[in-house]
Amino acid sequence: MSHRDFTIYPAIDVRDGHVVRLRQGDYAQETRYADDPHAVAQTYAAAGAGWLHLVDLDAARSGGYTLDSILLQIKATTPLRIQTGGGVRSERDVQRLLDAGADRVVVGSLAVRESDRVGRWIAEFGEDRIVVALDTRLNSDGRWQLPVHGWTQVDSHESAIELDDLLQHYVSCGLVHLLCTDIARDGMLAGPNFDLYDRIRAVAPSLAIQASGGVRDSRDVDEARVAGCAGVVLGRALLEGSLQLSEVLEC
After folding, report:
1. Those residues with Cβ within 8 angstroms of residue 4's Cβ, 6 or more apart along the chain or in another chain
2. How many Å apart are CA 168 and CA 172, to the nearest integer?
3. Are 183 and 135 in contact (CB under 8 A)?
């Protein structure tokens, strides 16, 4: 399978109506950057972005996607294609986001807890409409584990769910788009974990990987492309100005 051209995904994480970033997924370690997600999206569109990664952090924790109006507003006023998620729990949720203008729906924790169900959604809605987002951490045995109930909550069954097994499942279901984050790198500006993406490509070479977590500068973006990723998600580096979107898009 041949992947599409390398894609830059500027990210907007929204909590309580504000653009924020969390450190390692910890809601107690929040930095607020802007009060108007729509204005930030317009800035990214003006810089030449083709895609936007939009996350409802409130819904990711408590369920019930709340960014419908923001999604509609961005779609109405920019040419951006949008992949969005947070709190997606059912087929109805997926359809609702697609109806609101989402180009792809991102499914996170449910993709770990109910993988058979999410696997069926790929067939139901189409392989280009679903992004599975897997957040993983390396355990002391050198295995990549998948937290079941969020990054900061310890789960007694966590050790039973491993990245390699879940990748094989989703490949068999026809998954194309995988967003994968090393929890230890997210929001830390420490660079993505390219060893993780090498591992994924070895286990599941058919997947179009979106690198996420820790991107610092244009060199990290270049390395993601050279490493065979299909795209990269840019968060804190854009918001803090260490990375200029227009520059990486030109490259």
Report:
1. 208, 230
2. 6
3. yes
Distance CA 106, CA 89 (A): 11
Choose, from 56, 58, 93, 135, the residue flagged as catalytic.
135
Active site residue 135: yes
Q: Which residues of 93-107 are buried (b: 16+ CB within 10 A; e: fewer)?
A: bbeebeebbbbbbbb
Residue 154 CA, chain-centre distance (Å), reads 21
CA distance 25 to 19: 15
What is the chain's alpha carbon radius of gyration, rounded to the nearest angstrom?
A: 17
Q: What pTM was computed for the model?
A: 0.92
For 11-36, b/e burial (b = at least 16 CB within 10 A) is bbbbbeeebbbbebbebeebeebeee
For residue range 170-199, list pLDDT tens digits in order: 999 999 999 999 988 877 778 899 999 999
Cα separation, 74 vs 197, in Å, equals 31
- 74 DSSP β-pair partners: none
* Catalytic residue status for 141: no
| DSSP labels, 6-20 | -EEEEEEEEETTEEE
| Regions of the chain with pLDDT less than 50 | 1-3, 151-159
